[in-house]
Amino acid sequence: MVRCLEEWERGFNVCTLRDAAHAAGCSAQLAAYLGVEEDLLRNALATACALPLARVATPEQARSVQQGIPEASFETAIVADDELDGDPPLRVRRLALLDEQLAGWTMLDERVTVDWDEVRLIVRGRIRRHRLEVEERSGRRVEAPEIIEARDFTSDHLVVDLFGAAARRWRIVAHGFDFGCLGERRSMLAEENLNVLVEELARRASRAVCDDLYDKVRRWLDVVWPPTTRTESAGVRRAGLGRVHTATNTLVSNERQFARYGSLQLKALERIGGAA
User: Fold this and answer.
1) What's the CA gap between 17 and 51, in Å, rounded?
2) What share of the chain is helix, strand, coil (3-state, %, to 5)?
3) Are 55 and 30 in contact (CB under 8 A)?
4) CA gyration radius for the chain?
5) Does residue 5 form part of some domain?
6) Helices (H) and strands (E) in the chain, counts
7) Which residue has the higher pLDDT, 75 or 179?
8) At what angle do helices 214-224 and 255-275 cross, to 10 degrees?
């Protein structure tokens, strides 16, 4: 069984970078070797997208995993976290679909452009965030910390990452995006607008690959790249009689997972292009 790393550890990923759909036939052996649920692995492999199989601490461990994969009839590669965790995406709030270029305006209203023939990859998915705010009472007169109040906040946004020249990544978030570039095709629903926008981007960027498989493999990605969890203090205040109230915020998000997925798909395209 392959040990999963903690989120904070820097790791190395054993990944499929080519079509490994046929490997679903040996998913039982592969799942037993990796120590994971077979159905999750088989369904993920059947999508034929590039996938992480395991994340380990060193290149030596990654090579050992590669060598131990039973009946390995598909190509794997070792990809370091540092290769997947690049610069944060540049979020754009509106676009202009020009004849030769795509122009975007950032949240700071800076104009950026990319030629249509330089767009390599368009990845669509969802970013989900869950924040739990907890306030506790503690002190000399309290035997154990007591939860006073807990508040849950959840957001779920459709997003598109677009990879252009030099692997530069633009991010479009449906919530708050100005879909004026769609003209008469614009509707009242953000999800419909995003679907139309992706179709138009794919039509104009004819050399780009359009990937909408993230949501289909997310349950598998949760195994290898779990959502990021961060807990931080939200302050302390005295409540009298030797008691204090402490507050903490815990945020769970798949944003880093989605970013890594896109980076891995781009690496798969580069590997295929280099081998062509």
Assistant:
1) 7
2) 35, 40, 25
3) no
4) 22
5) no
6) 7, 12
7) 179
8) 110
- Does one domain contain both 53 and 99? no
pLDDT digits (tens, 9 = 90+) for 164-221: 987 799 999 999 999 999 999 999 999 999 999 999 999 999 999 999 999 999 999 9
- The whole-number average pLDDT for the span 48-67 is 94
pTM of the model: 0.89
> Do 173 and 48 have their domain in common?
no
Q: Establish if 183 belongs to a structural domain.
A: yes
Share of the chain above pLDDT 70, in %: 84
Neighbour-count burial of 155, counting CB atoms closer than 10 A to its CB (0-12 exposed, 13-18 middle, 19+ buried): exposed
The residues with which 115 forms a beta bridge, in sequence order, are: 101
Same domain assignment for residues 229 and 181: yes
Most distant pair of Cα atoms in the chain: their distance: 74
Determine the structural domain holding residue 20 and report its residue range. Answer: 12-84
* Nearest residue to 126 (alpha-carbon basis) of 251, 213, 22, 32: 213
At residue 28, the 3 state secondary structure works out as helix
Separation between Cα atoms, residue 151 and residue 208, nearest integer Å: 42
Residue 143's pLDDT band (cuts 50, 70, 90): low
